[in-house]
């Protein structure tokens, strides 16, 4: 007998926060403020917000459009302009949206009304696409760019040298922004933003840990719904309110033994990014099978957990260096294995994001290593975060069925 999806009501606060963010962005552009595009890591946003500069995070915009099924026309525009289908779909969707005709924008949703950049800030940590994406923006819009290099932690060391290297670049970035925009950095405001962000972080981590309960009171689809509180509201009081509300609702569910999937039978982990265009249907499909995805390195790993209001630049640098995609394969295997153990996972789903080299290159090795290490079954789903043409319903159904059958067989052997 299957289960039924039971989404967190409070997670919807993240979606509403996203709508407010883009409206404030549009109003900032109308008011003549300089607009920054961030390509790479969102961890830079506190430095930009504390100067009073509105910003657009390219990845988040593309994910937002894809989740709301508004990405098709921007992707068509990018295709017509010669962007290869193998190019990161976030790049194609973001650039296509920014290059829509005025006629398209007039007839389309407000979500397509994205201000063009006055300058661009790029980080290259773990992904070479961001550099090429930024260079394309520079050429198309004739704007200056600042590129921040984040060294990869090949040897799994403590990263102290790499952190100091990044701190030096952050100081140069601050000088660049002040010189170009004539806005001055407000260091007190930056500390306040980071302090509020730390409060949100604490509430989010405490809420996520409640998913260790059986049944789990939330799924990664709830966390994805609330992702706006990370991407767009980090450092704002509303981000604290959103995660405290989620935590409270989850605590009430734990007390009632109520899960995010009514009839939870299988507890799964997810490796890779969300398949945004299939977000709703996939969550319902899994729930109908009694499967709840209770943890994810992606959902757990992109929140800036090491920020320090007393030492803002060093905290930002530490988050750049320590973020999980910047770690070597052995570290990632251990990290995913630890999550699977902590959340009592029965099986692992790896989403191979077709147009993302950075997160998919090592996935088969990771999947095999975690499966062998923990003796749990794992499957590989090939799809994409934004391009629906890479998604196969039949493939997903067949592989999910195989995963759950392997879990059942494993349970029977243990009985």
Beta fraction: 5-15%
Supply the number of helical segments. Answer: 19
Rg, Å, rounded: 21 Å
Q: Which of globular, elongated, flat, extended, rod-shaped describes the shape? A: globular
**Termini separation (Å)?**
20 Å
The total strand number stands at 10
Percent helix, as a range, is 40-55%
Widest beta sheet: strand line-up: 3-2-4-5
- Going by helix content, strand content and strand pairing, the class is alpha/beta
Indicate the mean pLDDT.
93
Low-confidence residue ranges: none
If you had to describe this structure to a student in words, what would you say it looks like?
- This protein has 415 residues and is an alpha/beta fold.
- The longest helix has 23 residues, at 187-209.
- Helix 2 (45-49) links the parallel strand 2 (36-39) and strand 3 (55-57).
- It is globular and about 70 Å long.
- The strands form 3 sheets. The protein has a 4-stranded parallel beta sheet with strand order 3-2-4-5, with helices on both faces.
- It has helices at 12-30, 45-49, 58-67, 72-80, 89-98, 102-107, 129-141, 160-181, 187-209, 220-225, 228-231, 237-256, 279-288, 297-301, 312-322, 329-342, 357-360, 363-374, 393-414, and strands at 4-5, 36-39, 55-57, 119-123, 145-148, 261-262, 266-271, 291-296, 347-353, 378-383.
- The model has no long low-confidence stretch (mean pLDDT 93).
- The chain contains 19 helices and 10 strands.
């Amino acid at each position: 007998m299957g289960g039924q999806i039971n989404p967190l009501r409070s997670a919807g606060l993240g979606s509403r926060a996203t709508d407010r963010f883009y409206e404030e962005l549009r109003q900032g552009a109308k008011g003549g403020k300089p607009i920054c595009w961030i390509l790479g890591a969102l961890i830079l946003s506190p430095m930009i917000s504390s100067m009073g500069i509105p910003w657009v995070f390219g990845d988040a915009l593309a994910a937002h459009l894809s989740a709301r099924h508004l990405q098709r026309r921007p992707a068509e525009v990018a295709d017509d302009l010669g962007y290869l289908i193998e190019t990161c779909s976030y790049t194609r969707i973001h650039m296509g949206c920014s290059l829509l005709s005025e006629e398209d924008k007039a007839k389309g949703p407000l979500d397509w009304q994205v201000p063009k950049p006055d300058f661009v800030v790029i980080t290259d940590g773990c992904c070479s696409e961001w550099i090429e994406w930024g260079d394309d923006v520079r050429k198309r819009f004739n704007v200056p760019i600042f590129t921040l290099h984040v060294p990869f932690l090949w040897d799994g060391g403590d990263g102290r040298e790499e952190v100091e290297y990044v701190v030096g670049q952050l100081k140069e970035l601050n000088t660049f922004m002040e010189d170009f925009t004539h806005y001055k950095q407000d260091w007190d405001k930056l500390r306040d933003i980071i302090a509020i962000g730390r409060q949100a972080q604490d509430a989010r981590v405490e809420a996520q840990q409640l998913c260790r309960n059986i049944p789990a009171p939330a799924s990664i689809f709830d966390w994805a719904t609330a992702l706006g509180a990370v991407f767009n509201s980090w450092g704002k009081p509303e981000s604290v309110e959103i995660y405290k509300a989620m935590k409270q609702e989850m605590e009430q569910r734990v007390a009632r033994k109520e899960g995010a999937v009514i009839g939870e039978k299988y507890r799964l982990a997810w490796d890779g990014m969300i398949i945004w265009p299939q977000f709703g249907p996939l969550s319902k499909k899994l729930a109908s099978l009694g499967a709840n995805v209770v943890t994810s390195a992606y959902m757990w790993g992109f929140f800036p957990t090491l920020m320090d209001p007393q030492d803002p630049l060093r905290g930002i640098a530490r988050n750049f260096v320590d973020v999980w995609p910047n770690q070597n394969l052995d570290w990632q295997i251990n990290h995913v294995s630890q999550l699977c153990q902590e959340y009592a996972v029965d099986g692992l789903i790896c989403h191979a994001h077709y147009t993302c080299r950075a997160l998919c290159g090592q996935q088969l090795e990771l999947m095999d290593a975690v499966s062998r290490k923990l003796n749990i079954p794992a499957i590989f789903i090939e799809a994409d975060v934004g391009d629906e043409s890479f998604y196969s319903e039949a493939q997903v159904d067949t592989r999910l069925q195989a995963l759950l059958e392997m879990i059942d067989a494993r349970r029977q052997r243990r009985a």
